[in-house]
Amino acid sequence: MFGLTTLAANKLPLGNMLFIIISFLLLMLILKKVAYGPLTKVLDERADKISADIDGAEIARQDAEKLAVQRQSELADTRQQATKVVADAKASAQKQSDSLISTASDRATLINKQAQTDAEKLKEDAISNAKNDVAALSVAIASKLMQKELSLNDQQALIDAYISDLETK
Description:
Blueprint: H1 2-10, H2 14-146, H3 152-168
């Protein structure tokens, strides 16, 4: 009742009112099918796309973090390997240096021994030559003093005595 009196007061006939209501509902139904349905579909698709993009970005970020950690690990391994290579090279160089020094020291020792041997031989040769020269001079002097020629055994005995005498002095 309230609705009829209000309608009558506004002088809106019931038929027009029903037509407006039906037209409004029909327009709403058409808008829902034509505009609202596709619009919500497009908005849902966009929301899904944005959600997929966000998920993809999160996955890409996680992958990037994993790659960064992996690269840091590989860099640390590479640094460790480089340090090992440098240490090995230093050890090898030190070993080679020690080997060269040892070889040079051995060679110097050998040269020194050879020089000592040569010096001893030269000394012995010099002493032998000196003995021979002294013996020859002694024989010459003794021959002149005695005015006679000594036999070989006499000469040897005289030389040995003379040399013994020189060695004791």
